[in-house]
């Protein structure tokens, strides 16, 4: 398995972050890596969606865990395994939050993923978390 996490802290209330971070169809407004994103229904446990990053093929994902206002997990199938994304919102101090996105590449695809996509994905996620903070402040 290949794993990493990225985080950012910024001025916001957890509820505001939750509202923006779980509004899948609006991800392209602030996440510069996303070209298209959609949910096939409401954002609930077991729901599926689809997202396309700029310059890459799109892929499906399924919501596998939700703690409303605090945490959600999505899984994307990949050859020989899956990628699990854990999204966490925590109060850092009054008026500030820390957001963390953890990535676990499970299965035989992990070593290849690490060599070909790992560094770029880590950079892209870090930039998207910073953009999330700017979008909420604007």
Short description:
This protein has three helices and seven strands. The protein has 138 residues and is an alpha+beta fold.
Describe the model.
It is a single chain. The protein has a 7-stranded antiparallel beta sheet with strand order 1-7-6-5-4-3-2. The chain has helices at 14-21, 27-30, 110-137, and strands spanning 2-11, 34-39, 48-53, 58-67, 71-78, 81-93, 96-107. It has 138 residues and is of the alpha+beta class. The chain has 3 helices and 7 strands; from the N terminus they run βααββββββα. A hairpin with a 3-residue loop joins strand 4 and strand 5.
List the helices and strands and how they pair.
Layout: E1 2-11, H1 14-21, H2 27-30, E2 34-39, E3 48-53, E4 58-67, E5 71-78, E6 81-93, E7 96-107, H3 110-137
Antiparallel strand pairs: 1-7, 2-3, 3-4, 4-5, 5-6, 6-7
What features would you highlight for this structure?
7-stranded antiparallel beta sheet; globular; 3 helices; 138 residues; alpha+beta
Strands across the major sheet, in which order? Answer: 1-7-6-5-4-3-2
The helix/strand class is alpha+beta
Radius of gyration, in Å, reads 14 Å
* Fraction in helix: 25-40%
Order of helices and strands: EHHEEEEEEH
Q: Termini, distance in Å?
A: 38 Å
What is the general shape?
Answer: globular
Assembly state:
single chain
Binned strand content? over 45%
* Low confidence ranges: none
**Contiguous helical run count:** 3
Biggest sheet architecture: 7 strands, antiparallel
Mean pLDDT: 93
Tally of DSSP β-strands? 7
């Amino acid at each position: 398995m290949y794993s990493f996490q990225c985080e950012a802290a910024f001025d916001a209330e957890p509820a505001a972050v939750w509202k923006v971070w779980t509004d899948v169809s609006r991800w392209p407004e602030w996440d510069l890596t996303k070209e298209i994103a959609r949910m096939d229904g409401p954002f609930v446990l077991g729901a599926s969606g689809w997202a396309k990053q700029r310059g890459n093929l799109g892929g499906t994902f399924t919501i596998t865990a939700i703690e409303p206002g605090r945490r959600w997990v999505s899984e994307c199938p990949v050859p020989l395994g899956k990628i699990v994304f854990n999204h966490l919102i925590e109060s850092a101090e009054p008026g500030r939050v820390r957001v963390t996105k953890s990535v676990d590449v499970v299965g035989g695809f992990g070593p290849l993923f690490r060599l070909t996509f790992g560094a770029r994905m880590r950079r892209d996620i870090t930039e998207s978390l910073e953009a999330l903070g700017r979008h909420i402040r604007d």
